[in-house]
Amino acid sequence: MTTEKQDLQAGAETGGRHPWRRFVALGDSYTEGVGDPEPRSLGGLRGWADRVAEELSAGQPGFAYANLAVRGMLLRQILDRQLAPALALKPDLIAMSGGGNDIIFRRGDPDKLARHMDQAVENLAATGATVLLYAGPDWGGTPVFSQIRGRVAIYNEHLHKIALRHHAIMVDLWCLPELQDIRMWDPDRLHLSPLGHHAVAVATLNALAVPHALEPLEPRPVPAHGWTQARAEDLVWARQYFFPWMLHRILPHGSDESLAAKRPKPGPVHGLNRPDEVA
């Protein structure tokens, strides 16, 4: 446990409020909230970052939240397009996640990705903000994605080192047992379901040592399937989700420049319209 986290834990135990006033999240579809549809949320998505912000805003007048994440972005795109805008917002709490799309779709080198992430986290931490990092989940039991398990594990180890080096707080999804339940995942098996986003929000708040109202969910075990049924389900999934997704990532297509962050300006967590800008 880092010194910063120990201080936060002590504050929580004495009933003190958390110290953060402005939370900014960076990343891709995982942070944007894909897989957790909610018409009342900006962009029609809720996600773990929104859920964390909802809890952090309780009893904190003036708390503001921005989410700069955009689905499909590679780590280099996240850093090029989100890092400077995030720093300009002057957050005191930053969630940084990225690299998953590189590893899944581009056979990204985890060592090279880690070097880019290390520099980015150094820049974020230099502002004095608390930085959250996320180690990727264990996809060992998922067809196709089990082949990238080793690269994910190497990248995760780098992230742990980066967190130690820059006094960031690590949320380790690889060690989150809830994510082994199939109901934590969207049918595409790429994104978290609402239940999964809830679990990540709980893990994030726990890592921050912030008291919260979210109850850990304990889903019942999924009934065991026979081998034949399991393979048939895998083929259906690959045809409906994996192959179309891979074609979208590989074949030439229009630029994703038109995709915009759902919450580019820091503002109140709740509300149907765009958040009011907070100076």
Please tell me about this protein's structure.
This protein has 279 residues and is an alpha/beta fold. It is 42% helix and 10% strand. Strands 5-4-3-1-2-6 form a six-stranded mixed sheet, with helices on both faces. Strand 4, helix 7 (149-166) and strand 5 form a beta-alpha-beta unit. The longest helix is centred in the C-terminal third of the chain and has 24 residues, at 227-250. The chain starts with a helix and ends in a 12-residue tail after the last strand. The model is unreliable at 1-7, 9-16, 218-223, 225-230, 249-255 and 271-279 (pLDDT under 50).
Comma- or semicolon-separated keywords:
alpha/beta; six-stranded mixed sheet; globular; 279 residues; 9 helices; disordered N terminus; disordered C terminus; 10% strand
Poorly predicted regions are 1-7, 9-16, 218-223, 225-230, 249-255, 271-279
Series of secondary-structure elements, N-terminal to C-terminal: HEHHEHEHHEHEHHE
Number of E strands: 6
Could you tell me how far the N terminus lies from the C terminus, measured between alpha carbons in angstroms? 34 Å
Proportion of residues in β-strands: 5-15%
Rg of Cα set: 18 Å
Backbone shape: globular
Major β-sheet annotation: 6 strands, mixed
Quickly give the structural class: alpha/beta
Q: What is the residue-mean pLDDT, rounded to a whole number?
A: 81
Walk across the major sheet and give the strand order: 5-4-3-1-2-6
Helix content: 40-55%
Oligomeric state of the chains in view:
single chain
**Count of alpha and pi helical runs:** 9
